[in-house]
Amino acid sequence: MTDRALSVVRAGALTTVQDRGRPGHAHLGVPRSGALDGPAAALANRLVGNGPDAAVLETTLDGCSLRPRSAVTVAVTGAPCRVRVDGRPAAWGGPVRVRAGAVLDVGPAVLGVRAYVAVSGGVAVEPVLGSRSTDLLSGLGPAPLADGAVLPLGTPAGVHARVDVAPQAGPPSELVLRVSLGPRDDWFTAGAVRRFLSGVFRVSPASNRIGLRTAGPVLERARAEELPSEGMVLGAVQVPPAGTPVIFLADHPTTGGYPVIGVVHADDLPAAAQARPGTAVRFVAARGRGGF
């Protein structure tokens, strides 16, 4: 058995393998998937000398603990959290050397939701449709981590970054999302569209990798008939019968039968990945209809 592997000591609430996803398969009903906070995952890979396509681990709220079978360089980014190696404090947001058999503990998020753990060589589980990402909706890719699981690692491609700590954006205290109206904003009353662009919503605890659900002002529909299922894109803001918006994230379905009032700018979605339940959400109109 190869010594290029990680043993999972503590899997945490939800820890998955993620890379840049598997775009281009929507016609097969396969979502893009991939790391929800792409910039944080990319930074973690750069810190340990990995290429941009290397797979990392994405934790949710309470972190995870890992034991490498050989010495590795790791980096933890995304949600700020306590990092320890065999109980001793280690850097968050910088490269850390972990000897064979030592336990890397990624603690609960102090702020934000999701931390990213990159390991030199990348997590080398078998790719599916060109990606190693776990897709919670379709079930493609590796299963979420479980205690006792063993993850193979690839061969390191380069040296780690020569920095102590890399700067990165903090989790949002308020989520401000630029949105382009359409394609179905005409299915809502004029008052509902005004409330959508001026009201304050809150992140719901029911949010997950499929969608960020909100609570707040109800958006009334102007049309009551059924909408045939149609294609959905990353960042689409769908409004189900309850009347509160749902922002589709990386594991979203490729089709849906509720009207989409707008689409969030892709550059604003990483912040959505770090917004805790209760965080205020505001939608602001992008410049011009249908464009950014």
What is the residue-mean pLDDT, rounded to a whole number?
Answer: 94
The count of β-strands is 20
The percent range for helix content is: under 10%
Structural class: mainly beta
Across the major sheet, the strand order is 12-19-16-17-14-13-20
Low-confidence stretches: none
Report strand %.
Answer: 25-35%
- Number of alpha- plus pi-helical segments: 3
Distance between the termini: 51 Å
Compressed to H and E, one letter per element, the order equals: EEHEEEEEEEEEEHEEEEEEEHE
Rough outline: elongated
Q: Compute the CA-based radius of gyration.
A: 20 Å
The biggest sheet, with number of strands, parallel, antiparallel or mixed sense and barrel status, is:
7 strands, mixed, barrel
How do the helices and strands line up, and which of them pair or pack?
Layout lengths: L4 E6 L5 E3 L19 H11 L7 E3 L5 E5 L3 E7 L2 E5 L2 E3 L5 E3 L5 E6 L5 E5 L30 E3 L21 E8 L8 H9 L2 E3 L7 E5 L14 E2 L4 E3 L7 E3 L6 E2 L3 E5 L4 H5 L6 E6 L7
Parallel strand pairs: 12-20
Antiparallel strand pairs: 1-4, 1-11, 2-3, 3-10, 4-9, 5-8, 5-10, 6-7, 6-9, 12-19, 13-14, 13-20, 14-17, 15-18, 16-17, 16-19
List keywords for this structure.
single chain, 292 residues, mainly beta, 7-stranded mixed barrel, 6-stranded antiparallel beta sheet, nucleotide-binding, hydrolase
Describe the structure.
It comes from Streptomyces tunisiensis. Residues 27-290 form the Carboxyltransferase domain. This is Biotin-dependent carboxyltransferase family protein. Keywords: ATP-binding, Hydrolase, Nucleotide-binding. The chain is 9% helix and 29% strand. The protein has helices at residues 38-48, 190-198, 269-273, and strands at residues 5-10, 16-18, 56-58, 64-68, 72-78, 81-85, 88-90, 96-98, 104-109, 115-119, 150-152, 174-181, 201-203, 211-215, 230-231, 236-238, 246-248, 255-256, 260-264, 280-285. The longest helix is centred in the first third of the chain and has 11 residues, at 38-48. The protein is elongated and about 60 Å long. The mean pLDDT is 94.
